[in-house]
Design goal:
The protein has helices at 22-33, 82-104, 115-129, 148-159, 170-179, 220-231, 248-257, 272-281, 296-303, 333-342, 350-360, 363-375, and strands at residues 2-7, 37-47, 56-61, 64-73, 109-113, 132-137, 164-167, 184-186, 207-211, 238-242, 264-267, 284-287, 308-311, 326-329. It is α/β, with parallel strands linked by helices and 377 residues long. It has 2 domains: 2-190 and 362-375, Glycogen Phosphorylase B (Rossmann fold, 3-Layer(aba) Sandwich), CATH 3.40.50; 196-360, Glycogen Phosphorylase B (Rossmann fold, 3-Layer(aba) Sandwich), CATH 3.40.50.2000. It is globular, with a radius of gyration of 21 Å.
């Protein structure tokens, strides 16, 4: 089967640290390992800046054709009508497909990620090629009723009632089914194959980590305040926050104001290999998010044997389905503090956690689920 993947994020190769596009990368590798021909189209709009990447590149990566395009963005997208932005993306995806069509041929299956914007473009491309179409949604950005993206999604779904859509968690699936005229199926994100390989772990008691972009939705303020309170009763506990973003200065200031610089640090994004080492040296992963559609960092941490301590945020509840895997709490400082206070590392079987997540989120298993769903009548 020829499978064409349309990535809404910037598709990244293994030597690139940019966090987006990794899911599509792992899926492409998995489809290839199952014996299919695979190509990937990645298109995005970027503001004008120095040292920008080439506007269009076509590479062969592990016998997978990857076409990446960048459109020079003069005006922020929020100043343009949505239908214009959608047309820009649609032309971009179609242009990239024409560049690889002679190399790849007509696809049998198009697998797009997010309605915004790969999903909309994939419908046009599927109608031109006659390919079967599958759209995986792992974002909640367009679910707000009345927005241009929401209205466009509903129009497309009413015109294509046979469209096959998947969601990466039960909570996102419920939101999709409630707000859009679609019956979607839950198929979770796969685990990065890097985390399936065995490595020696030396988990250090009291060494906690948190991974995520420094944005309001990740709720790091709650995490820092709760951890400072926890530190008063656990004198050797430390927290490393890994990420970058708009709240970097504010969060560092909050750490200094709480005299917490000796036991809380913020470091920037790191390579996947180094991240795996960090997981293997930690005691537990902390997640303080207000909302998650899934929670990739949770399954990565668990694949290294870490319990996950998280706020109840939607996506993580689909992962932490047992007290043998971690704990969840309400979204306030006192709830998070109580969860930390009650945490006992010795109550968790780290090998059992690892076996569970590596079996549940094996990329070949997830890819097979996608193909089975796509073939349904």
């Amino acid at each position: 089967m020829r499978i064409l993947i349309l990535s809404s994020e910037h598709f990244v190769f293994e030597d690139e640290n940019h966090p987006s596009g990794m899911f599509q990368r792992d899926l492409a590798k998995s489809y290839k390992a199952l014996g299919h021909e695979v190509a990937v189209i990645s298109f995005r709009c970027d503001p004008l800046r120095k040292n920008r990447p080439p506007e269009l590149t076509v590479n062969e990566w592990g016998n997978i054709i990857v076409a990446r395009g960048v459109n020079r963005k003069v005006f922020p997208e929020r100043y343009l009508p949505f239908f214009i932005v959608r047309k820009i993306y649609e032309r971009g995806y179609l242009k990239l497909f024409r560049r690889i069509e002679n190399l790849f041929g007509e696809p049998d299956l198009i697998h797009a990620h997010n309605f915004e914007y790969a999903g909309f473009s994939s419908i046009k491309l599927a109608s031109q090629t006659g390919a079967n179409l599958l759209i995986t949604e792992h974002s909640s950005r367009f679910l707000e009723s009345g927005t241009d993206v929401f209205n466009a999604a509903n129009r497309f779904l009413s015109r294509y009632p046979q469209l096959k859509v998947t969601a990466v968690s039960k909570s996102l699936n419920k939101a999709l089914s409630k707000t859009l005229a679609v019956k979607s199926e839950v198929i979770p994100n796969p685990l990065d194959p890097l985390f399936l390989s065995e490595t020696r772990a030396t988990h250090v008691p009291g060494r906690f980590i948190s991974i995520g972009s420094l944005r309001p939705i990740k709720n790091h303020k709650l995490l820092i305040v709760a951890f400072c309170k926890f530190r008063k009763i656990s004198k050797t506990a430390t927290l490393t926050i890994i990420g970058a973003g708009e709240l970097s200065k504010e969060l560092n200031c909050l750490i200094r104001e709480n005299n917490a610089s000796d036991f809380i640090e913020i470091i920037g994004p790191t390579s996947r290999e180094k991240l795996k080492k960090i997981y293997n040296q930690a005691d537990a992963l902390l997640i303080s998010s207000k909302f998650e559609t899934f929670g990739v960092v949770a399954i990565e941490a668990m694949s290294c044997g870490l319990p996950v301590l998280s706020t109840r945020n939607g996506g993580v509840e689909s992962i932490i389905t047992s007290r043998k895997l971690g704990r969840t709490c309400r979204q306030d400082v006192e709830g998070f503090f109580e969860m930390l206070k009650d945490y006992d590392s010795g109550k968790f079987d780290r090998q059992q956690i690892k076996r569970h997540v590596c079996s549940m989120y094996d990329p070949h298993k997830i890819s097979s689920q996608y193909l089975t769903f796509a073939k349904k009548g």
